[in-house]
Design goal:
six-stranded antiparallel sheet, 2 domains, 35% strand
Length: 249
């Protein structure tokens, strides 16, 4: 780092010596000779070198400061996916005549300032479930976003990314499906787009009665967010929310 700093100082110093400072010394030297000022030639080099060094330090600081301010402004415009007080909540839905209990997570994009880079693009959600003893049960690499095309209705000629990864503009909220169950049954199931093939009861995502923890990892362009969820699956009753917490980076 010190080496890079010294190289930058030398570069700026050379620019000043060969530029404005050099021109000023030439002009002053001309008039010095006209008025017969003594020792100007020997002194001018040292005065010019010192002046160029001071200007080099200042110009380097000014350049770095400007770049830092521009970076800070840019970072303030990056997307921020956050949870709110009621982000993790229970709900119900019907598939035909069957009633399901479901837990969904809502995230909102709240950048510190709105810029063209504030849009969260191709946001993918990974879910990892743990039991009450903190033993990892399974992971869902691409969870299902609410409001996207349902897998049975998907155009087979289109990329699956259009379903599993979403776009969230500044100020927009998006819901993510986490887990569901038939309300009167014991087992619940993690949700993904593959769940449709099993009537929302994917055998690889099966959980018995108990308390569980789910880590939600959101990734995308300028997005890296981790959220911890806790919920209960009671026997023969609706799913219950326990807690939601956004984990700092």
């Amino acid at each position: 780092m010190l080496r890079d700093f010294l190289k930058a100082i030398v570069r700026h110093w050379v620019n000043w010596v060969s530029g404005l400072v050099g021109v000023i010394l030439w002009i002053v030297g001309y008039f010095a000779e006209q008025f017969g000022l003594p020792n100007w030639t020997s002194l001018s080099f040292w005065w010019g070198a010192c002046l160029a060094l001071a200007l080099a330090v200042y110009s380097l600081w000014s350049t770095e400061h400007k770049e830092l301010v521009e970076l800070q402004v840019r970072l303030r415009g990056f997307p921020r996916l956050l949870v709110t007080t009621n982000s993790f909540r229970a709900g119900i839905f019907f598939h035909g005549q069957t009633r399901y209990s479901v837990l969904r997570l809502t995230v909102v994009n709240q950048p510190l300032s709105k810029t063209p880079e504030s849009v969260a693009r191709e946001v993918l959600a990974k879910l990892t479930f743990y039991d009450g003893g903190d033993r990892m049960l399974f992971s869902i690499p691409a969870a299902r976003w609410e409001g996207t095309v349902q897998p049975p209705d998907k155009d087979p000629n289109k990329d699956i990314v259009e379903i599993i990864a979403v776009r969230i503009v500044a100020g927009q909220e998006r819901e993510l499906n986490i887990v569901c169950k038939e309300a009167h049954k014991a087992f619940c199931y993690g949700l993904s787009n593959d769940s449709y093939e099993f009537w929302f009861e994917h055998p690889n995502y099966k959980m018995d009665v108990g308390v569980y923890r789910c880590i939600v990892e959101l990734s995308g362009h300028y997005v890296d967010t981790t959220i911890e969820l806790k919920f209960e699956n009671p026997d023969g009753q609706d799913l219950r929310v326990i807690d939601v917490e956004q984990i700092p980076l």
